[in-house]
């Protein structure tokens, strides 16, 4: 499961970098994101985001429970240490993935608005090319 989250995080970071800099890939990416935001795309994205948020809250709850047990007993056994480290890594990757998804959505929105404003301000530039 970690491989999936690492792949998701690195893909989202690459997409954000592609949105930040002017390139032909940026235009293609904006067109693709526009297509994804039509139809049932937003509904699917929200349901996947909600599912990840529920799993994230479950992982955080389990970490808190393990921490409570360790405070009561005074020590953490090796099994619980590994389980806690595993849950912390999973929760941090899920949280970072959700944050990057929101950041990518906002960046797409701002980039789209910027393109529309540039077309309105400089209509002659489009005709000359």
Automatic annotation (TrEMBL):
Keywords carried by this UniProt record: Membrane, Transmembrane
Transmembrane is among the record's keywords: yes
Name used for this protein in its record: Endoplasmic reticulum transmembrane protein
Species assigned in the record: Citrus sinensis
């Amino acid at each position: 499961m970690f491989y999936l989250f690492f792949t998701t995080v690195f893909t989202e970071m690459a997409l954000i970098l592609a949105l930040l800099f002017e390139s032909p890939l940026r235009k293609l990416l904006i067109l693709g994101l526009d297509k994804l935001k039509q139809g049932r795309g937003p509904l699917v994205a929200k349901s996947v985001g909600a599912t990840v948020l529920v799993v994230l809250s479950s992982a955080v709850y389990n970490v808190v429970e393990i921490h409570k047990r360790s405070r009561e007993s005074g020590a953490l056994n090796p099994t619980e240490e590994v389980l806690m480290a595993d849950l912390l890594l999973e929760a941090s990757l899920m949280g970072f993935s959700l944050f990057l998804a929101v950041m990518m959505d906002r960046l797409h929105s701002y980039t789209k608005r910027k393109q529309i404003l540039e077309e309105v301000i400089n209509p002659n530039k489009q005709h000359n090319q």
